[in-house]
Amino acid sequence: MNSVSPSAAQYVGGVMQDELVESRRQQQQQQPLERQGSFGLRPPQTPDPSREATGEPDEMDKLKAKLMSAWNNVKYGWTVKSKTSFNKISPVSVLGHSYLLNSEDEVERFRLAFVSRIWLTYRREFPQLEGSTWTTDCGWGCMLRSGQMLLAQGLLVHLMPRDWAWPEAQQLTDVDFEVFRPRSPARAGGVPIPSFGSPRGSNTPEKSLPSDQAPKCSQKKRPESARDRQAEPIHHRLVTWFGDQPSAPFGIHQLVEISKSSGKKAGDWYGPSIVAHILRKAVAKTSAVHNLAVYVAQDCTVYKEDVVHLCDLSLSQTPPDPSNQAWKSVIILVPVRLGGEALNPSYIECVKNILKLECCIGIIGGKPKHSLYFIGFQDEQLLYLDPHYCQPVVDVSQANFSLESFHCTSPKKMPFNRMDPSCTIGFYAKNKKDFESLCSAVSEALSSSKEKYPIFTFVEGQGQDYGLEGHSSNNSGPAAHILPPGKLGRSNNRRNSDEFVFL
After folding, report:
1. CA neighbor of 373 nearest in space, from 458, 491, 489, 275
2. Mean pLDDT of the chain
């Protein structure tokens, strides 16, 4: 999804990476393709020892990178405008907030909430990634971009006023929308919401209906909050942290550099589990963000004492000072797998209940071979932000750089049953009280699953209490199994028993 509403056909069936593979086949007929996770295919590479020693790509790598960059820039650089239908009878849930689109005020509230999310997409023409010839992440960086959006949402909640809305979104939402009559056989009771204005550059090709062909109705403006306007310098600074330049703490350059310790490099595809650990390391590494930590769950289990040791600043004192109430805010990332080859339908209700929680900051996952950032749902459709749109790089070092390309104006939906089972769920707690409330609320949401085993669990104690000394949160392997309740302390040998099951 993007600011100018990509064609729905472009997103059906997860075909984007399939097209990428097809385009490579004629050049690589002698090179079999191997699967790497659920989000893409890449050809096996034969390392050149001399090149590995210097860390420099050879001429063939340079040529391939240039050809792929050119192809992806064309492929992801244009869109066809389309509309997404929303039912005006059922509520739309977006990260703990609910909107019933049966009135102009509610539609406006939803518009502002959606447009205010940070949207991070493919970019082109940024400084070359170290050790490669890549100057774009088109075609391979979608999961990193989804992870950036998840972290950006956590930072918005951490730094911005409660229920903050981007003041400039007012200008982007001042458009007409169509209301279909309930008797319409095609869209009964629907409110199709087009992109909320399109003040983008005129060089972006679009196709849309002329405005005089659509029924019109007036829109009420939400009064601009002085508090929101005062927070704009923080908003700008937050976006600079995700800039596409080597110095940005959460930019593509830093994330790729951090991923090298896990055997990844520019041009590889990333899964939601490894991205969770990359984000954890990025936050721990930077001094730009204060009073914030990231915890990554182990084997679908959040160990409460591990979170306490990470966040309770009094424990870092020698000796510990119980009177010190200082507590770091925390983003909790939980890599899970919600089924085998496809999503287990029994977990859909549970995922809905998680997205209804205010402490939830979203889910990174997507369709097979096509990463997305999920922020809500309506009925049996997930609402998402899509990184698959290639935009020119923005120089965030400029004092008054434009924020337009970092905010999406076109909501998109997809059916739950097309969701890839591999994903990472994010939560945020500002203080100790919020963390305790989070544990209670999320546990209740998890209990709504029809399955015997929950998606993940909260347990007392530390990971090492359950034989996980060698399985700290530094491990970036996929989370594939959980323990049934009541058996956590029976054996330290978790790998060779039948005490875990595949979700």
Report:
1. 275
2. 75
